[in-house]
């Protein structure tokens, strides 16, 4: 190994969103570290947070450090990354890399010692693509986010959104039959929504996903004759909000909200070129700002920006036959863009109506869901639960993001879209069924979890799970297991009691 790049991400006190700082070590430095590794140590014990607020205080929002364009690594917040910590961390990485040669199946996870006050988080896409971007990071460790790393071989959205990870053809005979069933349902005078949900649970064909999502979210009426007028009225209503409220982003009492949105949007799916286009980012800014000022109980919270992306991609696919993630939206007409924007806003609003307590002050909804996940796992797999307790890993340290971002940071976007097919067809899918999906997702990695025998290794594993190659097949198995858990535990409160 000629070079090693360490990626540490500082958590946000609100949502633990992604933001990375690169510490780059040259080959000469690594040889020096090997000599020092025997004497350089970092305490492994992680201080438990006695409350949510203490947990929040123990995290740092890197986006508030220095200038928005370039993080200042000389600021006090970064002074804790002293040479002793850096050397010890790098030494641990070297040791773990040597272990990886013995256990090749774990090659996609990188472990390292991390100061306990830092939250180490990274999207699944980032984890898998860090190798591709290592050369550019070595050349310029403070490179601005506008320069994207090399593209992965497997698209994150694109046309394989309806394919298995094995790359099977998207339209089998069975899929053609299902597509015809959907078209019959959608074209009937009054669409049977119960039947539509039943058909959508195993996944919605790409060709009919936009109208199906509008119906399942409650945005469109079941009556086909009313749909056109409803779309026209709701789209006009949204752009009425733009005319009425959007200029207020320049007012002092909205500056903090708009500034945070403006910072977060370029960091939304940074590896997908579609979301780095200025026009797309302007659309996202408007959607998020209008939602925030119309929901003052929560306002904008980091993480909500992620929830726009599946809707945007699905409604964009209504007009695009080709590769979605590299599509230039300036090729669309103004009317098409306005329709995509308004529909994304309303469907996101419908979703958030059911989980708004996740984003109100202190985010009580997330705290309850994380606690429920801990209790559920303690009944499902006591060995995994006790393993976390032994190494003082708190569920809040990894599951906060799972609840806040609905697993979007753990899965490629194509998988999120497939997952949301089921969430929208399942009663209280986003607010209730998601808990069982998270439990199934955690237990999926039980072997890897039990193989880790220190706090840092466990946390790095749980926040860099190797899902970059996942497709419909893996999501289908995950959902089946989640459904089994729900069937066994949802109506059995005694299972939660110790």
From TrEMBL:
Query: Is Kinase one of the keywords?
Result: no
Gene3D superfamilies attached here? Answer: putative rabgap domain of human tbc1 domain family member 14 like domains, Ypt/Rab-GAP domain of gyp1p, domain 3
GO MF terms held by the record:
14-3-3 protein binding; GTPase activator activity
Q: Which domain of life is it from?
A: Eukaryota
SMART domains, per the entry: TBC (SM00164)
Which is an annotated Pfam family here?
RabGAP-TBC
The UniProt record lists the Rab-GAP TBC domain at 203-427
Is Repeat one of the keywords? no
Question: Which keywords are on file for this protein?
Answer: GTPase activation, Phosphoprotein
Q: Where is this region: Disordered?
A: 98-117, 123-144
Q: Which InterPro entries match?
A: Rab-GAP-TBC_dom (IPR000195), Rab-GAP_TBC_sf (IPR035969)
Functional note: May act as a GTPase-activating protein for Rab family protein(s).
- PANTHER family with a match to the protein in the record: TBC1 DOMAIN FAMILY MEMBER 22B, TBC1 DOMAIN FAMILY MEMBER GTPASE-ACTIVATING PROTEIN
Protein name per its UniProtKB record: TBC1 domain family member 22B
Q: Please tell me the species this chain comes from.
A: Bos taurus (Bovine)
Gene field: TBC1D22B
